[in-house]
Amino acid sequence: MVKLLENTYRMINIGLANEIALMCDRMGINVWEVIEAAATKPFGFMPFYPGPGLGGHCIPIDPFYLSWKTKQAGIEARFIELAGYINGQMPQFVVEKVQNALNLVGKPLMRSRVHVMGVAYKRDIDDLRESPALDVMLLLKRRGAVLSYTDPFVPSLKLEGLELNSQPQDAAASADCVVIVTDHSAFDYQQLVARAILIVDSRNALKAFQSDKIVRL
To answer: What SS3 state is found at 137?
Structure first.
């Protein structure tokens, strides 16, 4: 129960951060600046950050086991179910960001080359379990995008009949849009900003850069 509480605590707070991100996007507010400012309070606030969705073998799974278990006891876990719904919407939100970014430069998502930076579920590991990158890529594929990816920890992957191999980061320069899904520390972000045509950053990896080609979550 201690383990379930700890993972559920993180899942719910990430869900809140994701919902705030959705709100800020609609109102034209930079959610990363909002969280950074709130974190300057010396007590009573712990920063959690939005992203493309939850991954791994704990946070996306354990809270729903707890929810299932409590239903057997006749209790409805409303916070868990609501946070799960919000977190589950984030891959779709990222794909909409990509589609809207391409529309603004006069390109449809259909047949556009979309290069994904990072497919592991979190930075600097090789674990694909429940990775939101797979959901993002699957949604992009179903909308007709031509996919490629770079991940130094994941040399190859299979996605709904599609077999892909990790490409050198230089491949991002020829894509119509680059999507940062997992912010590995091995990536050369300065080079990416310099050479990519259009970038959707779902991790605030490009916080230090200012450019019209960057679209933030």
So the answer is: helix
* Residues 101, 38 share a domain: no
**Measured distance CA(175)–CA(196) in Å, rounded:** 7
Q: Are residues 125 and 210 located together in one domain of the fold?
A: yes
Q: Does one domain contain both 117 and 171?
A: yes
48, 69, 88 - which closes a domain: 88
Question: Cα–Cα distances in Å, from 188 out to 13, 174, 180, 182?
Answer: 30, 16, 12, 13
Q: Which two tokens stand for residue 126?
A: 């090789």
List the catalytic residues.
Answer: 58
What is the residue-level pLDDT of the chain in tens, covering all 217 positions? 999 999 999 999 999 999 999 999 999 999 999 999 999 999 999 999 999 998 887 777 888 888 888 889 898 889 989 999 999 999 999 999 999 999 999 999 999 999 999 999 999 999 999 999 999 999 999 999 999 999 999 999 999 889 999 999 999 999 999 999 999 999 999 999 999 999 999 999 999 999 999 999 9
What CA–CA distance (Å, rounded) separates 192 from 184? Answer: 13
Q: How many domains does the chain have?
A: 2
Domain identity same for 94 and 81: no
**Please, are residues 123 and 183 in contact by the beta-carbon 8 Å criterion?**
yes
